[in-house]
Amino acid sequence: MTDCIVLGAGMVGVGTALALQQMGVDVALVDRRPPGEETSYGNAGIIQMEAVEPYPFPRQAGEILSAALGFNDKVRWRAGSLHRWALPILRYFMASAPASHRRIAAVYSTMIRRAGDDHDPLIAAAGAGHLIRRDGFRDVYRHGRSFADAARTAERLEREFGVVSRIESGIELAAAEPSIRIGLAGAVHWTEAWSCADPGGLVAAYARLFASRGGTVVTGDAKTLRQVGTAWRIDGPDGPIEAEHVVVALGPWSAELLRPLGYAVPMFFKRGYHQHFAGKGPVLPMIDADRGIVVAPMRAGLRLLTGAELTGLNSAATAYQIRHARRAAGQLFDLGDPVESEAWFGNRPCMPGMLPVVGRAPRHKGLWLNFGHGHQGFTLGPTTGRMLASELAGNETLPPELHLVA
């Protein structure tokens, strides 16, 4: 019998397993696929220490309508599945009101600002420094008005949270990023962020570090989880695995797993697509803020990432998002030929309150939760893992906003 089973080998699960291990807990890390091959594989690879405010629901009527009608590249709603998420999305809209959003950001920002400190020792110990750049990324703007608004926001974030950035004119941006084909209004260079050339590879490196320190990585099906007396049990390849504690860190699949245990988790999903191209792109990862797309240099090629699509977890993929992203990115760069024939897609697990669920479950002894990180699972995995491990060890009481309401 082991001390703890961690279900899910993405950045959040691996970060949790490492943090528990650091506290002397014997951990089995379980996933149906090798570490880093699900949602953590497909992101923009940015550790975003500047992202102190979570993404709110749009408040302008025109922006909401354009998303609903499919005219907004930043967010697109799949009308056929939207009715399933009506209540969580309504709660998301309400939580995004300015006063509520400020309260949420007060909790969120303390985690985000710790992310670099929590990643740094893992990067060094895993020998993964070659995957990391520490010179930031850019939000670029096509229009003078949106650029001016962004510059004011950057100044406010520095004043309120200490976030450091550099405001670059269109001329300065063109000199720093000579591959851009058209003139742009300017950029906000977020200098504190780090970028990763292989997000799935970084998660895999962390998992190898976990194994080298005596942890067990197991291929298994989380759906076999059940409570047996005071223990938790899953089926492993060599027989049952039992532990006093179990952590659910399954990202978008967490709500589905918890439903039979009586937990109605109000999760909804922001789907993202990406595809790699062989052309020449930016020196640093770049977010085309007016179009909601990301272009990031990766080991596999130039990764083009789309805006968010609100849809069901098991909905079929569509070509709409990647087609629009490719058109917008093609205006900025010579993308070249696609590396893969089809785009990858994954689902970001989002909670209406924009904060992840971290800590003990309210009705089951030994059941722990770490999911719902939205856009920032890659950034926050080691941080919320450390927080959960500290609460499990009795060293810390987490903010009540992070706990799941029974």
Automatic annotation (TrEMBL):
InterPro entries: FAD-dep_OxRdtase, FAD/NAD-bd_sf. It comes from Tistrella bauzanensis. It comes from the Bacteria. This is Amino acid oxidoreductase. Keywords: Oxidoreductase. Residues 3-390 form the FAD dependent oxidoreductase domain. Pfam families: DAO.
